[in-house]
Design brief:
- The protein is α+β, with helices and mostly antiparallel strands.
- It is about 40% helix and about 20% strand.
- The protein has two domains: about 120 residues, Molybdenum Cofactor Biosythetic Enzyme, Chain A, CATH 3.40.980; about 70 residues, Alpha-Beta Plaits (2-Layer Sandwich).
- α1 crosses α2.
- The mean pLDDT is about 90.
- It comes from Schistocephalus solidus.
- This is FAD synthase.
Length: about 210
Protein backbone atom coordinates (compact mmCIF):
# COMPACT_ATOMS: atom_id res chain seq x y z
CA UNK A 1 0.00 0.00 0.00
CA UNK A 2 1.28 3.45 -0.92
CA UNK A 3 0.43 5.78 1.97
CA UNK A 4 1.26 9.09 0.24
CA UNK A 5 -0.71 8.03 -2.83
CA UNK A 6 -3.76 7.18 -0.69
CA UNK A 7 -3.50 10.56 1.01
CA UNK A 8 -3.35 12.40 -2.32
CA UNK A 9 -6.36 10.48 -3.61
CA UNK A 10 -8.30 11.14 -0.43
CA UNK A 11 -7.45 14.84 -0.55
CA UNK A 12 -8.74 15.12 -4.13
CA UNK A 13 -11.94 13.21 -3.34
CA UNK A 14 -12.63 15.24 -0.20
CA UNK A 15 -12.18 18.44 -2.15
CA UNK A 16 -14.45 17.44 -5.03
CA UNK A 17 -17.22 15.50 -3.28
CA UNK A 18 -20.00 16.95 -1.18
CA UNK A 19 -19.80 13.92 1.09
CA UNK A 20 -17.46 10.96 1.19
CA UNK A 21 -18.37 7.68 2.87
CA UNK A 22 -15.44 5.47 3.71
CA UNK A 23 -16.25 1.81 3.85
CA UNK A 24 -14.25 -0.52 6.11
CA UNK A 25 -12.00 -3.15 4.53
CA UNK A 26 -10.30 -5.04 7.33
CA UNK A 27 -8.21 -3.87 10.27
CA UNK A 28 -5.03 -3.27 8.23
CA UNK A 29 -6.72 -1.37 5.42
CA UNK A 30 -8.90 0.49 7.91
CA UNK A 31 -5.78 1.81 9.61
CA UNK A 32 -4.23 2.94 6.32
CA UNK A 33 -7.48 4.47 5.14
CA UNK A 34 -8.06 6.42 8.35
CA UNK A 35 -4.47 7.68 8.26
CA UNK A 36 -5.08 8.90 4.70
CA UNK A 37 -8.27 10.69 5.80
CA UNK A 38 -6.44 12.38 8.67
CA UNK A 39 -3.50 13.43 6.51
CA UNK A 40 -5.86 14.75 3.83
CA UNK A 41 -6.94 17.33 6.40
CA UNK A 42 -3.45 17.80 7.87
CA UNK A 43 -4.61 16.01 10.99
CA UNK A 44 -3.20 13.16 13.08
CA UNK A 45 -4.69 10.14 14.83
CA UNK A 46 -5.56 9.73 18.47
CA UNK A 47 -7.15 7.02 20.60
CA UNK A 48 -10.70 8.11 21.28
CA UNK A 49 -11.86 7.22 24.83
CA UNK A 50 -15.42 6.42 23.74
CA UNK A 51 -14.20 4.04 21.04
CA UNK A 52 -11.87 2.41 23.55
CA UNK A 53 -14.91 1.72 25.71
CA UNK A 54 -16.69 0.18 22.72
CA UNK A 55 -13.73 -2.09 22.02
CA UNK A 56 -13.54 -3.14 25.66
CA UNK A 57 -17.22 -4.09 25.58
CA UNK A 58 -16.94 -5.90 22.24
CA UNK A 59 -13.96 -7.98 23.36
CA UNK A 60 -15.01 -8.33 27.00
CA UNK A 61 -11.87 -6.76 28.41
CA UNK A 62 -10.68 -3.59 30.09
CA UNK A 63 -9.38 -0.83 27.85
CA UNK A 64 -6.39 -0.19 30.12
CA UNK A 65 -5.34 -3.84 29.76
CA UNK A 66 -5.10 -3.74 25.96
CA UNK A 67 -1.40 -3.65 24.94
CA UNK A 68 -0.39 -0.54 22.98
CA UNK A 69 0.60 -2.67 19.96
CA UNK A 70 -2.67 -4.64 19.93
CA UNK A 71 -4.31 -4.50 16.48
CA UNK A 72 -7.71 -3.95 18.08
CA UNK A 73 -6.64 -0.44 19.03
CA UNK A 74 -6.69 0.48 15.35
CA UNK A 75 -10.47 0.48 15.65
CA UNK A 76 -10.21 3.31 18.20
CA UNK A 77 -7.67 5.48 16.37
CA UNK A 78 -9.41 8.32 14.57
CA UNK A 79 -8.47 11.81 13.35
CA UNK A 80 -8.05 14.10 16.35
CA UNK A 81 -10.55 16.68 15.06
CA UNK A 82 -13.22 14.12 14.17
CA UNK A 83 -16.59 13.84 15.87
CA UNK A 84 -18.56 10.76 16.83
CA UNK A 85 -22.14 10.54 15.58
CA UNK A 86 -24.60 8.28 17.37
CA UNK A 87 -27.99 7.25 16.11
CA UNK A 88 -30.90 5.48 17.74
CA UNK A 89 -31.44 1.74 17.88
CA UNK A 90 -34.84 1.18 16.19
CA UNK A 91 -35.53 -1.84 18.42
CA UNK A 92 -34.66 -0.43 21.83
CA UNK A 93 -34.90 3.30 21.25
CA UNK A 94 -31.53 3.63 22.97
CA UNK A 95 -28.52 5.41 21.44
CA UNK A 96 -26.57 3.21 19.04
CA UNK A 97 -23.71 1.27 20.59
CA UNK A 98 -21.07 2.04 17.97
CA UNK A 99 -20.83 5.47 16.33
CA UNK A 100 -19.90 6.76 12.90
CA UNK A 101 -16.76 8.88 12.81
CA UNK A 102 -17.07 12.19 10.97
CA UNK A 103 -14.34 14.60 9.98
CA UNK A 104 -15.66 17.49 7.91
CA UNK A 105 -17.36 15.94 4.86
CA UNK A 106 -16.04 12.40 5.42
CA UNK A 107 -18.01 9.70 7.25
CA UNK A 108 -16.06 6.64 8.42
CA UNK A 109 -18.35 3.69 9.05
CA UNK A 110 -17.50 0.90 11.52
CA UNK A 111 -16.28 -2.41 10.16
CA UNK A 112 -18.43 -4.82 12.19
CA UNK A 113 -21.22 -5.80 9.72
CA UNK A 114 -24.06 -5.10 12.18
CA UNK A 115 -22.74 -1.64 13.03
CA UNK A 116 -21.80 -0.98 9.41
CA UNK A 117 -25.44 -1.43 8.35
CA UNK A 118 -26.65 0.75 11.20
CA UNK A 119 -24.14 3.39 10.15
CA UNK A 120 -26.11 4.26 7.03
CA UNK A 121 -29.13 5.03 9.16
CA UNK A 122 -26.99 7.21 11.41
CA UNK A 123 -25.57 9.35 8.61
CA UNK A 124 -28.81 9.66 6.65
CA UNK A 125 -30.03 12.82 8.44
CA UNK A 126 -26.62 14.41 7.86
CA UNK A 127 -26.49 13.89 4.10
CA UNK A 128 -30.12 13.82 2.94
CA UNK A 129 -32.29 16.85 2.30
CA UNK A 130 -35.56 16.21 4.20
CA UNK A 131 -37.41 18.25 1.58
CA UNK A 132 -36.38 15.90 -1.22
CA UNK A 133 -38.53 12.81 -1.66
CA UNK A 134 -38.08 10.00 -4.15
CA UNK A 135 -40.75 7.64 -5.45
CA UNK A 136 -39.70 4.20 -6.61
CA UNK A 137 -40.83 0.99 -8.25
CA UNK A 138 -39.08 -2.37 -8.59
CA UNK A 139 -39.25 -4.77 -11.51
CA UNK A 140 -38.13 -8.39 -11.42
CA UNK A 141 -36.71 -9.89 -14.59
CA UNK A 142 -36.14 -13.55 -15.47
CA UNK A 143 -33.23 -13.04 -17.89
CA UNK A 144 -29.55 -12.38 -17.18
CA UNK A 145 -28.32 -8.83 -16.65
CA UNK A 146 -26.00 -9.16 -19.65
CA UNK A 147 -29.06 -9.69 -21.84
CA UNK A 148 -30.56 -6.46 -20.52
CA UNK A 149 -27.50 -4.24 -20.74
CA UNK A 150 -28.18 -2.60 -24.09
CA UNK A 151 -31.87 -2.02 -23.44
CA UNK A 152 -31.24 -0.67 -19.95
CA UNK A 153 -28.56 1.70 -21.21
CA UNK A 154 -30.80 3.04 -23.95
CA UNK A 155 -33.74 3.42 -21.58
CA UNK A 156 -31.56 5.19 -19.00
CA UNK A 157 -30.20 7.58 -21.63
CA UNK A 158 -33.72 8.44 -22.77
CA UNK A 159 -34.88 9.24 -19.21
CA UNK A 160 -31.63 10.55 -17.73
CA UNK A 161 -33.03 13.99 -16.90
CA UNK A 162 -35.55 12.89 -14.26
CA UNK A 163 -35.20 9.16 -13.60
CA UNK A 164 -32.70 6.99 -11.73
CA UNK A 165 -32.29 3.38 -12.87
CA UNK A 166 -30.46 0.61 -11.07
CA UNK A 167 -30.02 -3.09 -11.85
CA UNK A 168 -29.16 -5.69 -9.22
CA UNK A 169 -28.48 -9.29 -10.29
CA UNK A 170 -29.10 -12.10 -7.80
CA UNK A 171 -27.94 -15.71 -7.70
CA UNK A 172 -30.01 -17.13 -4.87
CA UNK A 173 -33.55 -16.64 -6.15
CA UNK A 174 -35.42 -19.08 -8.36
CA UNK A 175 -38.11 -16.59 -9.38
CA UNK A 176 -36.02 -13.83 -10.94
CA UNK A 177 -32.42 -13.05 -11.90
CA UNK A 178 -32.30 -9.25 -11.90
CA UNK A 179 -34.09 -6.60 -9.89
CA UNK A 180 -34.42 -3.28 -11.68
CA UNK A 181 -35.35 -0.16 -9.74
CA UNK A 182 -36.79 3.06 -11.13
CA UNK A 183 -36.78 6.21 -8.99
CA UNK A 184 -37.94 9.76 -9.56
CA UNK A 185 -38.89 12.82 -7.55
CA UNK A 186 -41.98 13.20 -9.73
CA UNK A 187 -44.59 10.43 -9.27
CA UNK A 188 -46.07 11.16 -12.70
CA UNK A 189 -42.68 10.70 -14.35
CA UNK A 190 -42.26 7.42 -12.47
CA UNK A 191 -45.68 6.18 -13.55
CA UNK A 192 -45.08 6.98 -17.22
CA UNK A 193 -41.57 5.50 -17.16
CA UNK A 194 -42.84 2.37 -15.40
CA UNK A 195 -45.44 1.80 -18.10
CA UNK A 196 -42.83 2.23 -20.82
CA UNK A 197 -40.39 -0.06 -19.01
CA UNK A 198 -42.99 -2.78 -18.51
CA UNK A 199 -43.72 -2.65 -22.22
CA UNK A 200 -40.00 -2.75 -23.06
CA UNK A 201 -39.48 -5.96 -21.07
CA UNK A 202 -42.87 -7.47 -21.76
CA UNK A 203 -42.74 -11.24 -21.28
CA UNK A 204 -39.53 -11.11 -19.24
CA UNK A 205 -40.95 -9.70 -16.00
CA UNK A 206 -42.51 -11.60 -13.11
CA UNK A 207 -44.62 -10.51 -10.17
CA UNK A 208 -42.62 -10.90 -6.97
CA UNK A 209 -43.23 -9.88 -3.37
CA UNK A 210 -39.90 -9.58 -1.49
CA UNK A 211 -41.75 -9.74 1.83
Amino acid sequence: FNGPYLTRCMRVMCRNAQYLIKRPSGILNKSLGVIAVAEAFNDSLRLHPSLLDCIATLYNCKAKDIPPDDSRLRLARVPSTSKLIYGGDPLTGQPSFYPVVRIRNVFILPGVPKFFRQGFGIIKPHICDPNVKFFGKNFYCTCEETQLATRLSEFAAKHKENLLIGSYPVTNNRYYKVRISLESQDPRVLEEASEAFAELLSGELVSYDPD
